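Subject: Acetyl-CoA C-acetyltransferase structure
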Amino acid sequence: MSEEAFIVAAVRTAGGKRKGRLAGWHPVDLAARVIDELLARSGADPAAIDDVLMGCVSQVGEQATNVARNAVLASKLPESVPGTSIDRQCGSSQQAIHFAAQAVMSGTMDVVIAAGVESMSRVPMGSPNALAEQAGMGWYQSPAVLERYDGVRFSQFLGAEMIARKYGFGREALDAFALESHRKAAAATQAGAFKAEILAIDGHDNDEGIRYDATPESIAAVKLLQEGGVITAANASQICDGASGVMIVNGRGLKALGGSVKPLARIHHMSVMGSDPVIMLETPIPATQRALQRAGMAIGDIDLFEVNEAFASVPLAWLQATGADAARLNVHGGAIALGHPLGASGTKLMTTLVHALRRRGARYGLQTMCEGGGMANVTIVEAL
């Protein structure tokens, strides 16, 4: 019989805007601060950590050469603790959660840190591809892939436009969703809803990207990114610097931590799915439907949802297709207001979801996000 997987600590930095408050931090040191905070909150013996699994998308420059291991060496963990870096695009650290949970459920490990980091100020989005092309190394899509997809260069931006057209969402609907994201994030911040989950860095404990003065007019004034399209910088996720993490243990690991630490949540279901890499960002829809079926649950059984706001068209299409209650979606705002630090977003959303469930006395939460290449992870947790 397999073990259960429990989350005993969950923390994130406040999101930093591009060239903003966190831009001066080396991503390795930023991730190390999250690791140290997880140790402090759980009271875990640093030597008891079996592994550190860390999501990171742009693994080049300061985030190259296994950023997870480098973060271990910059933290209070002993050298005996290993680390490995994961790239499942935007779902990188959500996949880290899955790998960590699978490890403790199998009994091969007892205490694992799943985390993520991305400094989009210091390592700009797309850096690996841009540097490779500059060096004459070519494009990541091979001739066989290009032949299979009629020479289409995969693009998340074009995928977001395709989803908006497919599901019938115009600019006005996307902008209204974006405005609501800022309003929910502002209200959550002012109510102290993020206080338990944020690790203050240099005294900053508020997400830097929230536009408290956002209006329909200010969002509508932002230029389209493509003539005739509907996507703008205002109805898409914000470039963001940040780090986040959760500590995951099994029953033995929980006992090793001592009686003073109580689990925050239990991992109830994990799955991952791939679909069309051209439209790319639609996979959270079939992935959610399959996850609920495998978990023996209905959409109405879930109390809160976190669906990453990579572009407003993604959660809007997800709502339409799944029939989920919009009032349960991204209740504290999402990446449009709070930022999307790529490899850190998976554990960032999980941190927010677990704390929001407990704050509201709710039980089940579901997290999913679109991922480059046409994939999506789904994680269902039960708050304890």
